[in-house]
Amino acid sequence: MGRKLVIFLILTFMLPIFSINGNSFAEIASASDSCSGDIEPISWNQTVGRSALVPHYNYYSGYFGFGDFDDDQKGRSHKSELVYEPPREKTELNPEEEWMYEDWDRDTRLQPLTTNHHSIMLVGNDSIGALRVNLSEQHRTTICVTVQALNETSNDYSVDVYLMTTSEFQRYTELYYSSHSSNNFYEEISEALSDISPEWRGIDFTGWRTYRDAHQYESINEINFALNLDGPESYTPIFGGERWQDFYIIIDTWDNNHDNDAAPPGVVTAAEVTIITTERSFILPNFTVAIIFLMMIIGMVIFPFILNARYMKAGLDPEADQTGNGLVPSLEIPAELSDHTENQNTHDKQYPEINNALDET
């Protein structure tokens, strides 16, 4: 194996280590992306959707509660009906319009996002503001978010920014509505499991995750990130047909169950969201990763056999044997005699009587 190949393999395996620190290649590339371009007007509910979660409206009103068990006249216990909570009053810190939070789960299919857009969202205190998009796997998408307090200045102002798919956003909304309900057992369980390690989050029925468990940016006021899709984001459940996933760009001013998220700022947030799409010139198919790893495994299996074959042939080189430099004698070429052995044979021929006497003794 050549020295250049060894150096290349070492650098390839050490590349993930370099990407762990704060100056990773991915972050540098994302930060260097330009957040400007030919901005086109948004066609709402065609290319981009707008939704919100607010504390004064509970989509699952009564869903998280359990009725009390009362005894009837015959002494049998039965479960009473759920008591629905009256809606909270809307305050001046919640500027969202009704259609944003009363119809947030609309199932309208969006067109693939292939153009650049810019939008300003007003997100109330203790609320969630989200833009719903259908990202294209043929384009590289850069998302730039800048937030600030509306009509106020604050040095320690910060919010949370997340990127989620449709199924991830649904679990996220369930926890939000549970935390804003008097029957918040769901939120209490999630708080107890907030420190669960990443490798166990997949089986946590109360938890929620961001896309690829990586696109979560907490306690920030500005962030730029980019992503490429390997293919259409969809999945097929055990029962039912294929389900397509949209993406939600979320501005979070709610104190969720994460340990390092930002607290409610107490003001209205103005969030500027810019989405820049760049067409990808070359896209590797998904199966290339499997082929590369398969070749690596096959190479690891056959390498010992190649090494053993070369070792077994190392002493059978005819040219090396003809030069007389070989140390191991073969059947075709007799062993070389040393000078001491040649002198001893000559002495035996000159004095045979001495050898006979020694043999008789």
Q: What sort of overall outline do the alpha carbons produce when their principal axes are compared?
A: elongated
Number of self-contained structural domains: 2
- SSE succession: HHEEEHEEEEEHHEEEEEEHHHH
Low-confidence runs of at least 5 consecutive residues: 19-33, 64-70, 77-82
Number of strands: 14
The structure class reads alpha+beta
Mean pLDDT: 77
The description of the largest β-sheet is: 6 strands, mixed
Strand content: 15-25%
Note the total helix count: 9
Q: For the CA atoms, what is the radius of gyration?
A: 36 Å
Distance between the termini: 61 Å
Helical proportion, percent range: 25-40%
Verbal overview:
The structure is a single chain. With 361 residues, the protein is α+β, with helices and mostly antiparallel strands. The protein folds into two domains: 27-64 and 81-279, no CATH class; 287-360, no CATH class. It is 29% helix and 22% strand. The chain is built from nine helices and 14 strands. It has helices spanning 3-18, 25-32, 98-102, 166-179, 185-192, 287-312, 318-322, 339-350, 352-360; strands at 48-53, 69-71, 77-79, 112-113, 117-123, 128-135, 139-149, 159-165, 216-220, 222-227, 234-235, 243-244, 247-252, 269-279. Strands 1, 4, 6, 8, 9 and 13 form a six-stranded mixed sheet that branches. Helix 4 (166-179) packs across helix 5 (185-192). The protein is elongated and about 130 Å long. The two termini are 61 Å apart. The model is unreliable at 19-33, 64-70 and 77-82 (pLDDT under 50).
